[in-house]
Amino acid sequence: MITYTLILFLVSLLHVTISTNVKINFREKEKEVLDQILGPGRYDARIRPAGANGTDGPAIVWVNIFVRSISKIDDVTMEYSVQLTFREQWQDERLKFNDFGGRLKYLTLTEANRVWMPDLFFSNEKEGHFHNIIMPNVYIRIHPQGSVLYSIRISLTLSCPMNLKLYPLDRQICSLRMASYGWTTDDLVFLWKEGDPVQVVKNLHLPRFTLEKFLTDYCNSKTNTGEYSCLKVDLLFKREFSYYLIQIYIPCCMLVIVSWVSFWLDQGAVPARVSLGVTTLLTMATQTSGINASLPPVSYTKAIDVWTGVCLTFVFGALLEFALVNYASRSDMHRENMKKQRMQCEMEHGASLDATSDFIDTESNATFAMKPLVHHPGDPMSLEKVRQCEIHMQPERPNCCRSWLSKFPTRSKRIDVISRITFPLVFALFNVIYWSTYLFREEAEES
Q1: pLDDT in tens, 63-80
Q2: Do strands 79-91 and 59-74 pair parallel, antiparallel, or not at all (unpaired)?
Q3: Is residue 368 scored above 50 in pLDDT?
Q4: In 3-state terms, what secondary structure has residue 35?
Q5: What is the mean pLDDT of residues 429-435?
Q6: Contact between residue 149 and residue 89 where contact means Cβ atoms under 8 Å apart
Q7: Beta bridge partners of 89
Q8: What's the pTM?
Q9: Is the N-terminal amide bond of 134 cis, ω within 30° of 0?
Q10: Are 316 and 282 in contact (CB under 8 A)?
Q11: Any bridge partners for residue 151, and if so which?
Q12: Which runs of consecutive H residues, i.e. helices, occur in 148-215?
């Protein structure tokens, strides 16, 4: 009897020792919990959760996003592509479960159709797709208190209406709008998560833009079927100007300056001046057409249109200046030839008159009493007339411009000399007005 009692004691002690050494795997408990809360007849994903504190109010869904990358911003199609991690969080009292003393922090699902999901859609989306490499980038976490977290990685191409009046000195605001498709605000309300609802990756690099800041707001919309909850985030992009300075503005300035070289060439070098003017004009026209090809055909005038238009006008004006110089040169030559012919005729006519007078004097014995044509210095009549002329004639004031232009006897040369000064001064004045106007407008729109 004592031996039997001792054997039972040893067996019970061994059983207690084995049971204490065996560790319970609480991951295996997840199946039991999932079957318990999501089993047949226990949960209906078609029914939305109750409102705050179990009331019949609308279900509250908290939203936050993480912007992973922005691949491009297209000016022609007015759209931009973004990749982001989208998260939603809401409370569903039907999904509460026992956490076994804190051992089960949350349950993880990869099938969104197992639980109720908000019917959110991106209202300004053009294209979009999920990521399924290597596995679908989506998960659902159910916490013991019934809180549900939904996270997914998606890539979107969104429309971004742009105002290009200040292009390329502009700033653009591209929005990301999220709204409920079927549930009205009586059943579903979207709210931004408190704290930091929008996060952006730190090493975000864009080829021609800089993300300056972003703002979150609400954009609820009312239609014939009711009012729908809507969230939006505005991304403010500033266009990088250095690219356009190197590719557009500096080459255009160089073309305009090259067109001024014809002012320093001889007016007789017709092939050189014509080829220089036509080449710069065609190059400037090609540059302008290339710029317009990369932009949408908008109805208003852009800042780049003003710049290229004025530069094209200066190049065209340099070509017209040579046409005017050529015409003035031929006019000067014609005038010089007419002057030489007139002088030659006067010389020939004067010689014939002298010969005729000599012939008359030798043949005629008559004498004529001629009055003197020049008065003597002491003549009182001549002194009086000189005083009257001095009273009525004012001395000419010295003019520096006239004295400087008098160094160039021909009109064609004067036109070239005036163009050498006028064209650079007018172009410099245009630059001052252009940059001050558009830079001030940019600062005004920014403020």
Answers
A1: 999 999 998 899 999 999
A2: antiparallel
A3: no
A4: helix
A5: 95
A6: yes
A7: 62, 149
A8: 0.73
A9: yes
A10: no
A11: 87, 139
A12: none
